[in-house]
């Protein structure tokens, strides 16, 4: 009698390399919870749990001092079922295969939730961009592009900026790719400078999308933005734009944090003075218009809205019960662990999950990609109006499902995203 086939744990990655990553295990756990609610076909679940394609490359770079340093780069394409894969390129010391693969999976659900014709992807290089010169960054970026050329393309995989990268990084990638194929190809990346085919409003898109979601939640909860307060962790592109957008609507920013430290001012932090302080090269933690506080105290500041806009896994079982916000708006990817979700589900905190809340960036990236292909440019007003329309539509689809099924907002968002990707796979079938 033959032995029964082994049954894999649906919450664990099949790859031994990914199984060691807490971030990827977290992504698989979220997928499992959505799959249970959807009664998802086991075969499709198995396909969704593993990336479609992964590449790990060595990136040798001649440094300014003449020596050669070899960086490690990653590009993971989670799904190509619904269209070319889409996702950012991250430069950070924490970058590893598991983190990139988890971010690629979340991008699949995000694109599907927003009804964009993309699958999810993500890339990264393990480095500290703050310690590299402009020349070293350019050489590293161009060499990485050369290494991943076999798997990127306008209809294969389209990169965008992420943590540690920016418009200039995308310009270098576009130029490297264009030189290889012999003509200018702006649609190979999004988030590039407007002068070479970028979209007006793309840099601010993620922060604006976060704000649009917050305002919808405020309306549901019947809270006025006048005099409302916000705490933002992370003052990079997403966090700074979110702060500015909220202040325009009447909010006070009472707490801020970044990699240098955290600050608090219950009367409100003056963003113009803060920007001048940062522009002079001084760290956020030394801003004289607020009091320095331990990073661990940032999430415990009483506020209307808390916006984690930095790294993954910041809200955990250890601190979730200490949050003192009414709305948790996830500007970062994966900032809340599944254990923390269980705690938050027992509170009155309104959670706007990451795959919905920070989807503004990929949505306007889609606008940019379409404009580049058509060679037809939109105004900033058109971009912002269309972004608000799509963000509001997705928000209410998630909220309506959460109310109908009595589910947490995250579960509802994941169900909508996973179901759409799964349906595409089912319709296309399994080749051969």
UniProtKB/TrEMBL annotation:
Is Isomerase included in the keywords of this UniProt record?
Answer: no
Residues the record marks as active site: 122 (proton donor)
**GO annotation terms (biological process):** L-glutamate catabolic process
User: Which parts of the sequence bind substrate?
Assistant: 86, 110, 365
Enumerate the UniProt keywords alphabetically: NAD, Nucleotide-binding, Oxidoreductase
UniProt-annotated site: Important for catalysis, residues:
162
**According to the lineage, what is the superkingdom?**
Bacteria
Q: Which GO terms describe its molecular function?
A: glutamate dehydrogenase (NAD+) activity; nucleotide binding
Which residues are NAD(+)-binding?
206, 237
| CDD domains listed in its UniProt record | NAD_bind_1_Glu_DH
SUPFAM superfamilies, per this entry?
Aminoacid dehydrogenase-like, N-terminal domain, NAD(P)-binding Rossmann-fold domains
Q: Which InterPro entries match?
A: Aminoacid_DH-like_N_sf, Glu/Leu/Phe/Val/Trp_DH, Glu/Leu/Phe/Val/Trp_DH_C, Glu/Leu/Phe/Val/Trp_DH_dimer, Glu/Leu/Phe/Val_DH_AS, Glu_DH, NAD(P)-bd_dom_sf, NAD_bind_Glu_DH
Q: Where is the Glutamate/phenylalanine/leucine/valine/L-tryptophan dehydrogenase C-terminal domain?
A: 199-429
Gene3D superfamilies found in the cross-reference section = Leucine Dehydrogenase, chain A, domain 1, NAD(P)-binding Rossmann-like Domain
Family according to the record = Belongs to the Glu/Leu/Phe/Val dehydrogenases family.
* Protein's recorded name: Glutamate dehydrogenase
């Amino acid at each position: 009698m033959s032995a029964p086939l082994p049954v894999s744990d649906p919450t664990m990655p099949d790859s031994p390399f990914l199984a060691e990553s807490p971030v990827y295990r977290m992504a698989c756990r979220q997928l499992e919870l959505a799959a249970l609610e959807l009664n998802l076909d086991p075969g499709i679940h198995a396909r969704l749990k593993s990336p479609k394609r992964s590449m790990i490359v060595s990136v040798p770079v001649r440094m300014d001092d003449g020596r050669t340093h070899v960086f490690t780069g990653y590009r993971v394409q989670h799904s190509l079922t619904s269209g070319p894969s889409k996702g950012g390129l991250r430069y950070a010391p924490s970058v590893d295969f598991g983190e990139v693969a988890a971010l690629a999976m979340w991008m699949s659900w995000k694109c599907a939730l927003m009804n964009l014709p993309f699958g999810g992807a993500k890339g990264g290089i393990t480095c500290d961009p703050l310690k590299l010169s402009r020349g070293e960054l350019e050489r590293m970026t161009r060499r990485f592009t050369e290494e991943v050329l076999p798997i990127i393309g306008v209809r294969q995989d389209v990169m965008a900026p992420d943590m540690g990268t920016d418009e200039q990084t995308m310009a270098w990638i576009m130029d490297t790719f264009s030189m290889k194929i012999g003509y200018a190809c702006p649609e190979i990346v999004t988030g590039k400078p407007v002068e070479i085919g970028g979209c007006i409003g793309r840099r601010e898109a993620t922060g604006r999308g976060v704000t649009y979601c917050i305002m919808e939640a405020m309306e549901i909860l019947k809270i006025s933005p006048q005099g409302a307060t916000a705490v933002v962790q992370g003052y990079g592109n997403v966090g700074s734009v979110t702060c500015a957008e909220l202040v325009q609507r009447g909010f006070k920013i009472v707490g801020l944090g970044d990699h240098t430290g955290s600050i608090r001012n219950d009367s409100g932090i003056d963003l113009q003075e803060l920007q001048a302080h940062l522009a002079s090269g001084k760290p956020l933690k030394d801003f004289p218009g607020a009091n320095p506080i331990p990073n661990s105290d940032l999430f415990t500041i009483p506020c209307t809205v808390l916006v984690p806009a930095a790294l993954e896994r910041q809200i955990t079982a250890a601190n979730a019960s200490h949050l003192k916000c009414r709305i948790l708006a996830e500007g970062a990817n994966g900032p809340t662990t599944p254990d923390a979700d269980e705690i938050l589900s027992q509170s009155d905190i309104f959670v706007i999950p990451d795959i919905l809340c920070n989807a503004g960036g990929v949505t306007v990236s889609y606008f940019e990609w379409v404009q580049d292909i058509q060679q037809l440019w939109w105004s900033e007003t058109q971009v912002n109006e269309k972004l608000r329309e799509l963000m509001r539509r997705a928000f209410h689809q998630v909220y309506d499902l959460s109310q109908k099924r009595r589910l947490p907002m995250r579960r509802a968002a994941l169900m909508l995203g996973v179901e759409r990707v799964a349906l595409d796979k089912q319709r296309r079938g399994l080749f051969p």
